[in-house]
Amino acid sequence: MVSPRRRPPRGRDRTPIRIGTTAVARKIRRSAPDAGTPGPDESAHVPEPPAAQVARPVRVALVHDWLDTWRGGERVLSEICALYGDAELFALVDFLPEPDRSRLRGKRAATSFLQRLPFARQSFRRALPLFPRAIESLDVSAFDLVVSSSHAVAKGVRTHRGQLHICYCYTPMRYAWDLRDQYLRQSGLDHGLRGRLARRVLDRLQAWDRATSGRVDHFVAISQHIAERIRRCYGRESTVIYPPVAIDAIDAPPARGFAYVTVSHLVPYKRVDLIVEAFARLPDRELIVIGEGPERARIQAIAGPNVHLIGRVPDRERDLWLAKARAFIFAAEEDFGIAPLEAQAAGTPVIALARGGALETIRGLDAPDPTGILYADQTAGAIVAAVLEFEAQYARFAAAACVENAARFGPQRFRRELGAFVDARWSEFVRRKDPE
């Protein structure tokens, strides 16, 4: 692997390596992951490149926003790392707990100056105004292909004309765009001098976010919902490749229980507080809340005796909770929503807000084989009504239908579709740079 070197001046091209040679093609074919079984939507999303052009680039940089815990974005990153095992990893900071490191094939990220700030481990997010400068300080100039895994600033990494940059985009930066007012309000920054300063910071972040979208050659969106947001925010088209969803098979699935379950990072936009408030009105139903985050203390304060916050648990324990839950509850307007699909993969139906990615991943009561209830309003009252409707319609939900629906989003399908997309774009890039 070539180590990062000084960036060439803008406008000068490095001659890209030839990746179509027989020797390199043989080497990459030997190391390619199992393609798996074709998914139902593959041909609609990702055209296959010609067979002679399938060889992948040798020098690959993966750029992730930050690494401090294990959530949906990190699960996607682990699959990208499996596709490009020799790639080098970059991030603003890397405080990933060691037990999770093996999921990234042991990779440690080359980090920005934020890593060295004294408060970084606990409070690096407070340095939000510095994020653009920090991501631009990462030097990926020695690489042929840059794949950014971005929900905030990773897609703004500096590249040059001799490189191909593909962004797997979870969303344009939420707090600079769609959820801006909600973040300001729930952070107490929607009024006064601090509020004016916060809005000015977000104005600058939004302008930077829009401008740096031009550094991306091709966007890949996690859902049609996000493809539309990319079009609206950046004026760019994108290809939809759904993220991977997997759950380890449970040898002896537990009997279906009576408790409802939610799994979430406890941050404001997830609206776990609404779920807890709803179950305060349903005192004879039990709710299990799995996850940690800055909202935990506030949520605990409003929880009744029928609500149990059990924190973060190992994946195996989480899967058991999902498998025996009566239903999974979800209240966020999510860009895709991996947790509801993990619940369906465990055979558990979902009660979810009818917005965002849930409309693409959950089959509602209008389907012949529904996998969940979709409710319209983001309120505790709407959740209460949805729970009661779910119980009235309970006989319509089959575990097999939930599992079958989730199988459309498996990891092998993700690797195959993303790998084919990158191969096709790389082949086009090489032909443009070196038509001979």
If you had to describe this structure to a student in words, what would you say it looks like?
With 436 residues, this protein is α/β, with parallel strands linked by helices. Strand 8 (260-263), helix 10 and strand 9 form a beta-alpha-beta unit. The chain folds into two domains: 22-244 and 410-433, 3-Layer(aba) Sandwich (Rossmann fold), CATH 3.40.50; 260-408, Rossmann fold (3-Layer(aba) Sandwich), CATH 3.40.50. Mean pLDDT is 86; it is low at 1-45 and 47-54. Helices cover 37% and strands 13% of the residues. It has helices at 22-31, 42-45, 72-83, 98-101, 120-123, 131-136, 180-186, 192-212, 224-234, 272-280, 296-302, 315-324, 338-345, 358-361, 380-392, 399-406, 411-433; strands at 60-64, 88-91, 110-111, 145-150, 164-169, 218-221, 238-240, 260-263, 287-290, 307-311, 327-330, 350-353, 372-375. Helix 10 packs across helix 15 and helix 13 packs across helix 16. The strands form two sheets. A seven-stranded parallel sheet has the order 3-2-1-4-5-6-7, sandwiched between helices. The protein has a six-stranded parallel sheet with strand order 10-9-8-11-12-13, sandwiched between helices.
